[in-house]
Fold this protein.
Amino acid sequence: MNLVVYLAGEIHSPWREEIKKKSQALQLPIEFVGPMEDHDYSDVIGEEILGTQPNAFFRDEAASRVNNLRTQVLMSKADLVIALFGEKYKQWNTAMDASAAISFGKPLILIRPESLHHPLKELSQKANLTVETVESAVKALSYIFKTKD
């Protein structure tokens, strides 16, 4: 059995690579998908597809439409979503993706530090599992494939 896992969350730190490497080391049969990780490309894709926009507001709107299309297509094909909330960046996209996963009925693993317990308490209650580290999320992934010893 192979799983498709959508990795939602900020694109500025290497947490995705950490999950991929740890999962690969455990030989977990997982294909990972997620948002466009090239931030500059993500910001200009709307104009590349829809043409030049009159100002920054409309550039953002055009890029959002294309990025939301990507998210919806890839997340709809995913078997599971992992959403990471970190300390450093504003996490609006992560919150949107986690909420989308819940509304699509996708199983959700939420990764967040203890310090974000209070602001994410309602979202944590909707997730299937909330953990504090990438390592714990990988252990949960591994458990999915575990059979009796």
